[in-house]
Amino acid sequence: MSNLSTNVSNQAIVENKEFSVLQSVKEFFANRDIKFYVALTGALAISGAGLYYYTASKSPRPKSSKKKKGKSQKGTTRTNVSSAETAQTGTTSVLSTYQNLTVQSSYLAAKGIRGKAIEEEIQYEILSQAEIEAMPPEQRAKAAQVLKDRGNDAYRQRNYDKAVKLYTQAIAFHPNPVFYSNRAACYFNTEQFYKTIEDCKKALSLDPSYVKALNRRAAAYEQTNQFQEALYDYTASCILDNFSNEATVASMDRTLKTIAEIKGRELMQDRKKRLPSSRFIKAYLDSYRNEPLQEFFSNRDDEIAEINGEKDSQSGLNSEENGDLYYKSARQKIQELDYSEAFRALDKAVELECTNMAQAIEMRGTFVYLEGDTERALKDFSKAIELKPDFVRPYIKRASIYMEKGNIQETWQEFEEAIKINPNDPDIYYHRQVTFCKRYLQCTLHFLTGELQKATEDYRKSIELDSYFVFGYIQLAIAKYKLEPPEAGIDTFKEGLQKFDKSADMHNYYGELLLDLQRFDEAMEQFDKAIELQKSNPLPYVNKALAAFQRQDAAQAEELCRKALEVDPDSDVANPAMSQILIQQGKTEAALKYIEKCVEVARTEPELVAHLQFAEAARSHLNFARNYPQFADRLTSIRAISSGDIQSIKKLLEQDENVLYSDENGISPLHVACAKGHSEIVSLLLEHGHPWNAIDDNGKTAAEYAKENGYNEIYQRLLEEGCRVELILGLLGRKNQEEEKKNDGKPSNENFLTRPLKYSEDGTRLLDYENNGVMMGWEKPLMEKHAQIICPRENLDILNIGFGLGLIDTEIQKYKPRTHTIIEAHPDVYKHMIAEGWHLKPDVKIIFGRWQDVLDQLETYDGIFFDTFGEFYQDLREFHEEMPNFLKNEGIYSFFNGLGATNPFFHDVYCQIVEMHLADVGLKTKFIEVKIDPSDDEIWNGVKGRYWTLDTYRLPICEFMTS
Ligand SMILES: C[S@@+](CC[C@H](N)C(=O)[O-])C[C@H]1O[C@@H](n2cnc3c(N)ncnc32)[C@H](O)[C@@H]1O
């Protein structure tokens, strides 16, 4: 729940968080998910695609320090001391000790006792500093490693003193961040926090991105109440570790809250209470029906002027009259939106007493409440009720305060009381539902399920009782939009607009609904109308800004926020929006200025704490960027790609081509750019050699993300790139293959052809020696289609290459061919054909052998089908170069199109490539799409790997271009 709205619960629309775009800005601040905060300030990009965050995985990540250190020394072989080294030391004892060690380990080694066993025997602990220094570096490192391992053993046995000694000795041999960090762990466990910090500092001076040391130091800082330092360390650790350690993320969250709470408390103590922005107050006051100004007085403008001119002068007026005048002046100031003055006048009116004491106190209580002092406000509302028990409004206001306190029972009672007094007061129904709606939004759905439904009823009632209450319509429209199909909300807005065409609020919130539906142009129209009607309202500007930002126009978004801030510099919506927009562009420093403004204008402690948390998160990011510039670059790149900031990416690429990395989920910058539709960035990345065909851990290509999100141009661009690269590689591959052939002349599927095959008993499967599916029954409908294509009529000459299960051949037979030639290379398949009597069929001619070797036995055909197994695209291409010699002028050729069939994009690329290659030999290709669904696990049971994962088969039909 947004803290901002919790504290001004009655403000109708701003409350309606789920709906409001603005609310999303507020939620952004109120959101306690600090991981999100910090990631956002650092690197995270908000996107709908679910791909946001990638940091270095291509290069050694900081984590690897863990693996690198210590263990790498284990394999070091023993080096004999050179005579030069011994001579330099000049101390015999060193030499002798060291020689002893050497002899000792050589002896053990000679006995076949290696590794740890040897190392454990050696008494490194007994060496003096001078002796240590005399040792050759590798030997020292090895000794250090042994000592560290012993230290680890002691640590595991919780013998921390012994462990500290061993780590200290290890450090003496060879300082290493792990040793310091391990010793720090011992100090931490014995509550020597300052020593822990010192050791971690040493560890980090040797390896600044050593996550364990950062965490340890952070924990020690926390223990010694150095929260700011702890936060910086936890933040760095989280970013370096890609937020993978939940415990650290939780620690960062906790520290951030602690700091914000401490600071918030301090600030609140010194802070003078202040009213929210005038816009905010107006929205709040407007959510109650206006009372006529001249409730009790005739117009006495001259006297009011006097009071306004000489504010503290009491002379010449009796106290009651003065009180009345102040009260009236307050009403006027409210009309003029001069709320501070109105508040002051109300205070005076209450102090001097006036005829309308109940109203004056109630109104003063309202300002007290708006300042954030709910306890004092409650007192004023209660006093107003005491003075005028049939006064409905203070009941409603008291109810909303009770709701803020979570006291549902009392809240409900207050509304009930109000209804008893005046069942026809529309304010009651309206605010009751705003209040309970809020509660509903605060709670999990099952708690107050149905409240929203009740809300619509109350809004309706509120409108019935006062059909000129604009917020009633707005809220009703919103409730309908949430509960019913979107059109219901739209219709209510349209209906409301007929009545309230001049209401800026109506246009603004209707615009928000349209924006929520992504109907940008219509939304913009409504926002413009709202601005035209009420230039002093920052909300439509901010809405326009958010819409512009959604459409990647950050500059316009910033400009619009600036306008909103001109209108209301303290705006509790424009300031957060501006900071969010800046942060998402990586302008954290600039954003901080606006976050600080939010801190400055926050009126209540929870609100303040929420802003402070965000400010602290931003600061800790800036701190990280300063301390880890190399990582900061990467973070910038993430943000830049996500937000489409091409200039920053260009700059980064100029500095370092390898600055853009895939994350640990395999999501590459290209994936992100495609998902977000940044076509220029896609081109830039491709130009810089980013692989077009990278797949993430879900097996998805960047192009698929582009397609899913409707960026068809980008998809085409990648398709072209894929074809271009594959054609080049194809040429290169071909050359290599030719070279290879010259050398050994072996077929590409030699393994397959020389090893046994298995036919399933029911004849629906043919598997190779590794259980790869050579041919499977689910392909039958496809083979039927292929047969139909290559046999347009009876009595034709047909050629099929690759018998497999004989599915297509069985089908071809049905078209009564004049001749039916089958080439088959595998002996097992050939045997199977004979066993099945294919050689006895009068029109059938079997040619046993590889197609490559039997071309001279072929004639010309009306229909040709090609479907072999275990060959490469180069083989298919070679066949395509030969095939036109055997296809009659009017003939039709087709082939099994399993090219790239494990990924839709690769499939597309290969379909294009094959089409081009066929065109090279004078054939035009048409693909017809056939729906297939071999997704049933049963189909693939016992088969190694699914060779088909697509839902559509693109069946190729090739004919001579001239035909
Ligand atoms: C996928 S199956 C064909 C399935 C067939 N279309 C059907 O309807 O059952 C591939 C067949 O091609 C054969 N084959 C593989 N390489 C060959 C080659 N170079 N020449 C001829 N046949 C080959 C295999 O032995 C296998 O029988």
UniProtKB/TrEMBL annotation:
Chain ranges passing through the membrane: 36-54
Compartment(s) of residence: Mitochondrion outer membrane
Q: Which UniProt keywords apply?
A: ANK repeat, Membrane, Mitochondrion, Mitochondrion outer membrane, Repeat, TPR repeat, Transmembrane, Transmembrane helix
Q: How does it sit in the membrane?
A: Single-pass membrane protein
Give the chief site where it resides: mitochondrion
BP term (GO), one = protein insertion into mitochondrial inner membrane
The record, for InterPro entries, names: Ankyrin_rpt (IPR002110), Ankyrin_rpt-contain_sf (IPR036770), RMT2_dom (IPR026480), SAM-dependent_MTases_sf (IPR029063), TPR-like_helical_dom_sf (IPR011990), TPR_2 (IPR013105), TPR_rpt (IPR019734)
Per UniProt, residues of the RMT2 domain are: 745-963
Which Gene Ontology cellular-component terms appear in the entry? mitochondrial outer membrane
Q: Where do the record's region annotations for Disordered lie?
A: 57-86
Superkingdom of this entry's organism? Eukaryota
The ANK repeat boundaries are 665-697
Q: Where are the TPR repeats?
A: 144-177, 358-391, 392-425, 504-537
Please note every region of biased composition (Basic residues).
60-72
Q: Mind listing the GO molecular function terms for this protein?
A: mitochondrion targeting sequence binding; protein transmembrane transporter activity
- Family from the record: Belongs to the Tom70 family.
Protein name per UniProt: 9908_t:CDS:1
Species per Swiss-Prot/TrEMBL record? Ambispora leptoticha
The opening ranks of the lineage are:
Eukaryota, Fungi, Fungi incertae sedis, Mucoromycota, Glomeromycotina
